[in-house]
Amino acid sequence: MKITYYEESDVLFIRFTDQPVAKSRTVGSNLTVMDVAEDGTPVSLEIINANQRGLNIKALEFSSITDDITASRNAAKREEITPG
């Protein structure tokens, strides 16, 4: 995943995958565009006028919750396996 902010044009561009874009869909207002692959998988998201729309780009943070989800699933599996 790659996140790019174009400050001069106030556009936030998020690229999720390197898959080719099959079509673009307008999401919500005319200021957000979702590009999708042939199978419907999201490829990228473009938010036009990002700061003007209230997104605080300078406070952008990244968090990964994969470890938490994996830990929860593993704990649930252990509970299912544990004889009681």
Key features of this structure:
about 20% helix; alpha+beta; about 80 residues
How does this model look, in words?
- It is a single chain.
- With 84 residues, the chain is an alpha+beta fold.
- It has one domain.
- Helix content is 19%, strand content 31%.
- The chain has a five-stranded antiparallel sheet, with no helix packed on it.
- Strand 1 and strand 2 form a beta hairpin.
- The longest helix is centred in the last third of the chain and has 16 residues.
- It is globular and about 45 Å long.
- The N and C termini lie far apart (43 Å).
- The mean pLDDT is 80.
Short description:
The protein is an alpha+beta fold and about 80 residues long. It has one helix spanning about 65-80, and strands at about 1-5, 10-15, 25, 30-35, 40-50.
How does the helix and strand content classify structurally? alpha+beta
Reported for the largest beta sheet, the result is: 5 strands, antiparallel
Shape: globular
**Biggest sheet strand line-up:** 1-2-5-4-3
Question: Span from first to last CA?
Answer: 43 Å
Write down how many β-strands occur, each being a DSSP E stretch of 2 or more residues. Answer: 5
DSSP helix fraction? 10-25%
β-strand percent reads 25-35%
- Structural domain count: 1
Number of helices: 1
